[in-house]
Design brief:
alpha/beta, four-stranded mixed beta sheet, 393 residues, 11 strands, seven-stranded parallel beta sheet, Dihydrodipicolinate Reductase, domain 2, 2 domains, Rossmann fold
Length: 393
């Protein structure tokens, strides 16, 4: 049986100085010292106590980012924005400073001086150094960086051999993989489990799935389910079970912060809206009219609001509607899920899992390897998966 109190696990954030990563690191340190509860952490519930997951206190943090704001300062900004209690950043300052010392410059979207093969070599060196210096059992890489535009499929994305050849032949300034997929490639090649918490392409490349299986490394994704889509996945089974015919489902999302600013770009927002709508048709078994709109409202800061209108048909063709409003603090909703996923991926890797982990669909809007979007069914898959982790030796 694993001694979870002694196993040290690295969590390497892509986007380490962003709101989600900072909140996760702040929360893990606070929970370890008894300065915060673990409300919102799914894996702290009773169904996961036998899964042999690493403890929150044994997570060691680092990452890549192109932002230069130190983590203690970022935490102060988040507390000022209402994400955390005002006194918390000072209580965990030493932990944040230690993590900040492990944050290294990431790769920009375009690099005119280095080929992508050179970039992967440098990124992998950072991961190995982090693992060796801290004597970590394993390192889980979690992508919480800004959403990217979805690139068009390319031939070299289909087979690992073709991708490796393209990277070997790559020249400075030429993009073979978008940054999220480059990080996924580097993580998997280095033997690190990988999590896509954004809707970016990441590991959703056939060649990278082949690499994950070859390297015996698990990955999970994509696009963390924290707000409006969480409510959808709980309501959709109700309509299906009662055989109420959903005619349209439209939503408007108002976002502040860096995520909202990124998604104000049409090329980026398409990745997000497509993942948010996927659950409808696949859960109900028929096309549903309507769309999701995302608007950037800077004054909302770290908070978000979603308003949904559902038009449905009942007995004798009677038309009815449901409307709901969801208001939340995005980072406070996402951060505990990130910690859950890091712990689950670390244990899955330890027990020999490789490739996509569809049993973690509960955490994602657009889960890999499965078409199940009903929240209760997803939770049951997750519960059984956790049970199997506890039984593994």
């Amino acid at each position: 049986m694993t001694n979870t109190e002694s196993v040290r696990i690295g969590v390497w954030f892509v986007g380490a100085r962003g709101s989600v990563a900072t909140t996760a690191m702040m929360g893990a340190a606070a929970a370890r010292d008894g300065n915060a509860t673990t409300v919102g952490c799914v894996t702290e519930g009773p169904d996961f106590q036998g899964a042999e997951l690493p403890s929150l206190g044994n997570l060691v943090f680092g990452g890549h980012d192109i932002c230069e704001t130190p983590l203690p300062k970022r935490a102060e900004q988040l507390a000022h924005a209402g994400v955390a209690p005002a006194r918390l950043p000072e209580l965990v300052r030493a932990d944040l400073a230690a993590a900040d010392a492990e944050v290294l410059p990431g790769t920009p979207v375009f690099d005119a001086d280095r080929s992508q093969r050179e970039i992967t070599t440098l990124l992998a060196r950072d991961l190995r150094s982090f693992r060796e210096r801290h004597e970590l059992s394993r390192v889980v890489v979690v992508n919480v960086s800004s959403t990217e535009p979805r690139p068009s499929p390319r031939p070299e994305h289909e087979r690992l051999e073709e991708l490796e050849r393209a990277l070997d032949d790559s020249e400075p300034g030429r993009e073979i993989l978008p940054p999220s997929s480059l990080y996924a490639y580097t993580a998997l090649r280095a033997g690190c489990p990988y999590v896509d918490f954004t809707p970016s392409l990441g590991a959703r490349v056939p060649a990278l799935d082949e690499l994950a299986r070859q390297q015996r490394v698990p990955y999970a994704g994509s696009d963390g389910k924290t707000g409006e889509t969480l409510v959808k996945s709980a309501l959709l089974p109700m309509f299906a079970a009662r055989r109420l015919h959903v005619l349209s489902w439209s939503g408007t999302n108002l976002l502040g912060g860096g995520d909202g600013h990124t998604l104000s770009t049409p090329e980026n927002v398409t990745s997000k809206t497509s993942s948010k709508q996927r659950a409808l048709g696949e859960s109900l078994g028929h096309p549903v009219d309507g769309d999701v709109h995302i608007d950037y409202v800077a004054e909302l800061g770290e908070h978000k609001t979603a308003w949904d209108h559902v038009l449905f048909e009942g007995f004798l063709g009677a038309r009815m509607s449901l409307q709901f409003t969801w208001q939340g603090c995005d980072s406070a909703l996402a951060a505990p899920l990130v910690l859950d996923l890091a712990r689950l991926l670390a244990r899955a890797h330890e027990t020999g899992h490789a490739g996509a982990l569809p049993d973690l669909a509960f955490f994602f809007k657009d889960p890999v390897g499965v078409d199940e979007h009903r929240l209760e069914a997803q939770y049951e898959m997750l519960r059984r998966f956790a049970e199997s982790l506890g039984e593994a030796r």
